[in-house]
Amino acid sequence: MNISIVGTGYVGLVSGACFAEMGIDVTCVDIDEKKIGRLLSGEVPIYEPGLDDLVRRNVEAGRLHFTTDLSSCLDQVEVVFSAVGTPPDEDGSADLRYVLEVARTFGRNINKYTILVTKSTVPVGTSKKVKAVIQEELDKRGVQIPFEVASNPEFLKEGAAIKDFMSPDRIVVGTESERAQRLLSRLYRPFLVNNFRIYFMDIPSAEMTKYAANAMLATRISFMNDIANLCDEVGADIDMVRKGIGTDARIGNKFLYAGCGYGGSCFPKDVRALARTGREYGSPMRIIEAVEAVNERQKEIVVRKLAAELGDLRGRTVALWGLAFKPETDDMREAPALVAIDRLTCAGAVVRVYDPAAMDECRRRVGDAVVYCSDMYEAVVDADALVLLTEWKQFRLPSWTVIRKVMANPLVIDGRNIYDKAELVAEGFTYKAIGK
Ligand code: UDX
User: Where do the annotations place NAD(+) binding (predicted)?
Assistant: First the structure.
């Protein structure tokens, strides 16, 4: 089977490499010539554990190809996946420019029955627009070529993307015909050994499923952050509460960790987009609007805690451990670290940062607003406070004795609740966490 995947971001590249691993011939397409150039020379432009090897292996086996020209491979493929970006507009709605551009190229160049499957997270109703654009291009050409659109949202997590793609909890596919269903279930059959479920449904339901899933997960986080902040006030411990409720099978114990807010390329964008869809259709999403507001405020929590301990932050030195929005990625999109850096530098603090993977990304985003340190221990030198923002493994069990010696003031703000309060207090630190 031959397929093509447009967009070589996280979703596109991971999907492409994983399909190729299953013996499918995959052509990955991107308009970014530099990116394709790097991929052709064997360089993977994103940080994702295991992806380098997977890409290299499949390129060498001749199953994974890269090009900047979608039209050049359309005659050989039956299915085209569109996994291009949908960056948020100023008003929070998804910018569909790239999605519709793929549809246009598709309509201009197909010569036989082909399915265009949207993998990008797009607002409900987008597939209709995609279909209309393709039809418009076919009409311009004056040809009648059968085609179909389908929706196949992707649920993979950064940092665990390959595992998630290879053994997904479920696969959701929205189609309009049995023919498309047959083709797509054949394409996903190699993954069946892992006993996963594939759900075929109508296209609007598939589009909605993706938003509902991400919004539900984001809701759990904002809910727990709200409860944690109240725990702080009433003297309760959020970790106890989490265990207490998570053992109820109806609630489940996952995604209940309070912290300094969620970030990333999906939750913030999707929550806003869903709220917007609700407003557009006159069906306001009150919970979702609150989830977003709680999260925005939660990203400032470490700075509020710092100010409560240190008073005026002007001239104070603050060390930040972790810049990426979560461990095992260099991605800083909507990361709580960006809010912390902004608020701290505006307040006149000196910010010293360290992250195992996101230092270059941070430089690109904030330039020399902060001091870049070569390791976690260098970051805390002369610091008035250490703030943990991302729970990378290497931050989990540091040598507190060493840190205590080099810090100017022994204050630790644990934005992810990973440290043992008793241990830090015994080492002479003032320890503040979220909801404990
Ligand atoms: C998410 C979804 O999990 C995935 O299904 C979807 O396809 C894309 O969006 P991702 O953005 O890679 O994936 O990150 P995820 O691991 O889900 O974490 C998102 C954010 O939530 C991180 O900032 C993380 O720190 C935060 N989080 C997660 C919490 O604050 N508490 C939790 O309990 C879990």
Answer: 30, 35, 86, 121, 158, 269, 333
Q: How many CA atoms lie within 13 A of 371 on its CB side?
A: 16
Task: Output the CA torsion sign for 60, 7, 267, 124.
Answer: negative
pLDDT above 80: residue 83: yes
Task: Quote the CA–CA distance of 226 and 251 in Å, as a whole number.
Answer: 17
Fold (topology level) of 299-432: Rossmann fold (3.40.50)
Q: Is the CB of 392 under 6 A from ligand 1?
A: no
Q: Is the pLDDT of residue 26 over 70?
A: yes
Contacts of 55 (CB under 8 A, 6+ apart): 13, 17, 39, 42, 44, 64
Instruction: Give 124's Cβ-side CA count (13 Å radius).
Output: 16
258 is in an annotated binding site: yes
Fold agreement (211-297, 299-432): no
* Closest C-alpha residue for ligand 1 atom 1: 157
User: Among the residues of 153-285, which ranges form H helices?
Assistant: 161-166, 178-188, 203-234, 238-246, 267-280
Write down the CATH superfamily of domain 211-297.
N-(1-d-carboxylethyl)-l-norvaline Dehydrogenase; domain 2 (1.10.1040.10)
263 CB within 6 A, ligand 1: yes
The band of 35, judged by pLDDT with boundaries at 50, 70 and 90, is very high
Q: Which CATH number fits domain 2-201: 3.40.50.720, 3.30.870.10, 3.40.50.300, 3.40.50.2300?
A: 3.40.50.720
pLDDT band at 195 (very low <50, low <70, confident <90, very high): low
pLDDT average, residue stretch 407-425: 98
Question: In the predicted model, what is the mean pLDDT of residues 21-44?
Answer: 95
Domain residue limits, the chain: 2-201, 211-297, 299-432
Q: Which of 308, 320, 312, 374 is nearest to 351 (CA)?
A: 320
For residue 326, give the ligand 1 atom closest to its CA.
25
Distance from Cα 157 to the centre of ligand 1, integer Å: 7
* Distance of CA 427 from the midpoint of ligand 1 (Å): 33
Q: Is the CB of 262 under 6 A from ligand 1?
A: yes
pTM exceeds 0.80: yes
Question: And the tokens for 299?
Answer: 């990203």
Ligand 1, atom 15, residue with closest C-alpha = 157
- Ligand 1 atom 10, closest CA: 157
For the Cβ of 184 lying below 6 angstroms from any atom of ligand 1, the answer is no
Number of Cα atoms under 13 Å in the Cβ half of residue 324: 18
